[in-house]
Write a structure and sequence with these properties.
The protein is mainly α and 156 residues long. It contains 6 helices and no strands. The chain has one domain: Methane Monooxygenase Hydroxylase, Chain G, domain 1, CATH 1.20.58.
């Protein structure tokens, strides 16, 4: 486990410590840590989008769009596990379905009922939405530049 994984695990443990009940299933921690990892990747992508200079906007947007697709795939797997942990948790954790701890599924279902976890999910979804809007705006800028260049070349 690298320090990044440890950072997300520690954040997940702190989150769980704020919620009522006895928690401690490793798979629950991994599940919540995955949410924080995805959020962190989205924030990094947002910074990259914000940092794309006008001179390389096309290449920069393409690179971020590709990475956004990968993170969106991770988020989709996570969303499926939120809707049905017993059926999809294994895909998030990268384990076989038979290895899923029923106690972790129970803890996750309990977490979904507390107000803290839905707030964390809302923040994750808002971050994804914000990044998608920014990428779309940059793509629109690229299209505007291309159209303007084409119009200029037609006038020559």
């Amino acid at each position: 486990m690298d320090s990044t994984d440890e950072r997300f695990d520690e954040r997940a443990k702190r989150f769980l410590s704020r919620t009522p009940g006895d928690h401690g299933k490793d798979q629950t921690v991994e599940f919540i840590a995955e949410m924080y990892r995805i959020e962190s990747e989205l924030i990094d992508l947002e910074k990259r989008v914000d940092g794309i200079s006008p001179s390389i906007v096309g290449r920069g947007v393409q690179s971020v769009s590709t990475d956004l697709l990968d993170v969106s795939d991770d988020l989709y797997r996570f969303q499926k596990a939120v809707s049905s942990p017993e059926d999809h948790l294994h895909a998030v954790l990268g384990i076989e379905q038979g290895e899923v701890d029923s106690g972790a599924v129970s803890e996750i279902l309990t977490q979904l009922g507390w107000e803290w976890f839905p707030r964390e999910l809302d923040r994750l979804y808002s971050t994804q939405d914000r990044v998608i809007r920014k990428v779309d705006a940059k793509k629109q800028r690229v299209l505007t530049i291309v159209v303007a260049r084409n119009n200029c070349s037609l006038l020559e």
